[in-house]
Amino acid sequence: xxRSYPTSFLSRHTQTTTMSLSFxxxxxxSSTDGVSHNEETTIDNKETQSLRANxxxxxxxPLFEQLRANKDAExxxxxxxQRSIRGTRPLDEEDCAHLDxxxxxxxxxxxEVKSGIEREVxxxxxxxEDRGLAQTVVMEExxxxxxxxxxx
Length: 152
Fold this sequence. Notes:
Layout: H1 7-14, E1 27-30, E2 39-42, H2 46-55, H3 63-86, H4 93-151
Antiparallel strand pairs: 1-2
């Protein structure tokens, strides 16, 4: 059974959320004397540069608002996915009657197969029993024939 998912479901599981870099320090503290961390070295890589460029465009939102916006976006994606799943309509009387007919046919077919097997097993037992009786009769006739030969 192959399932297809809406693109919102797939994108929900492949996207990553980005937050403002102002809340995360992009530097490493180092120590010259081994006791106090008195030197700060800024990390500059493609990720931090792109985040700084994206965040410098407008006013900074507080972390709480960013988290709430991310949560709302994720919830909207979940609701869209649920709507796509629940978008199917409920069964009406015609659909129920059709499904009942299919179930009835399936049960009838199973009953026919089962009764056919039982019939064949009964015929097999009857044939085996007849064969056993025939062998018994033949053996009795042979024994009587052997007795008659001995007595004559």
